[in-house]
Amino acid sequence: MFxxxxxxxxxxxxxxxxxxxxxGVGYFSLNAKTPAPKPNIPIIEMTTIKGTVKSIxxxxxxxxxxxxxxxxxxxxxxxxxxxxxxEYEGKKVDVEGKFEKxxxxxxxxxxxxxxxxxxxxxxxPDAGKTTLxxxxxxxxxxxxxxxxxxxxxxxxxxxxxxxxxxVKILETGKMVAEPGQVVxxxxxxxxxxxxxxxxxxxxxxxxxxxxxxxxxSIQKSKISVDGTLAYKRTLPDGKVEFYAARESKMIYKxxxxxxxxxxxxxxxxxxxxxxxxxxxxxxxxxxxxxx
Length: 291
Description:
- The chain is an alpha+beta fold.
- The chain is built from four helices and 15 strands.
- The strands form three sheets. A seven-stranded antiparallel beta sheet has the order 8-9-10-14-13-12-11, with helices on one face. Strands 1-2-3-5-4 form a five-stranded mixed beta barrel.
- A hairpin with a 5-residue loop joins strand 2 (about 65-70) and strand 3 (about 75-80).
């Protein structure tokens, strides 16, 4: 009987010690600090672009207030990212930063730093490169004046002006309108379009016209060198429309229509530059809107 009692006591002591060990292991396991997983941070490549800073005129939603007009005719939307770009307006600069694709299908350049370009010290760095010139188109019948690139085509009608922008194939850099080197039939031309259209509405203000569109996504904006009040509308197919008025009865619709929906569309940036620098001019005495 004594041996049985001693054996049971040893078993009880063993179980007690085992319980203490298990409790200790659990305690330290709960309190041990495990290293946090490393975040999957993408590598973002910084780059430098060069051009002239220009003001868009208003800080639109998800669109920055300035653009960079590059020497090759392209336009880049700038996100100031806390930098004051107003002091660089109209000046040649080097802008350091990175491109970022937004959900609204615009690629915006996030500014990290800006440096003025000393044009005397550059001594023609772009010698030998083809630079496209900008021309001025003026229509007293439609009442507008704007700049367009020399490779664009301007067509007029009684109440409208259409600017045709040839679309480039990104892989080759060739215009879609150009036939390929080995083809059976010529490639059909493709163009992005900018339209200036006058919607003549008697006794209807711009605000009333916008209200009739019943589109809650429409935003207030500004266009032209005079900062004319306008309303901006972006459609699902990539089309962008601006509505503005003059003389209270005359409503303009200025729109950009891409040949196809694109994630990154440099021609859309050019459209923004054109309507930012356009002017409303007096109508012709013999025009359709002065009769």
